[in-house]
Amino acid sequence: MRPGSLDHRLQVLAERAGVPYIDGKKVTSHGWRAGANTDMIEAGVPLIDRNLAGRWDEASHTADTHYDRRHGRGTRDPLSEVPLYGGAAHGAVARAREADRA
Length: 102
Hints:
Layout: H1 5-17, E1 21-22, E2 25-26, H2 30-42, H3 47-54, H4 62-65, H5 88-101
Antiparallel strand pairs: 1-2
C-alpha cells in the first residue's frame, strides 16, 4: 500500500456515505487511532499501556494531547446515514451522547 492510500480510501468511502466530515473535521485514518485511544481512556487504561498499544514512545503524551477525542462526539450521528450500520450503531452513539449529558 502506498503512503496515503488508507486515507484516500477512507475519504472515498466517507464521501459515498455522505459524511466526509465529522464534527467539522475531514475523515482520516488518524480517527481510527484516536477512537481506540479514546475508548481506552474511558476504560481507565493507563497512559503507558495506551502508548504501547498505539506504538508511541513510552514517555510520550501524544495519546493524551492529540488522540483524546472524547470531546468530539458532536451533535450529528454520521452512522445514521449508513444503512449497514445505522441500526445498532446508531443506538450506541445515542447512548454515548446520553452518558455525556449525565
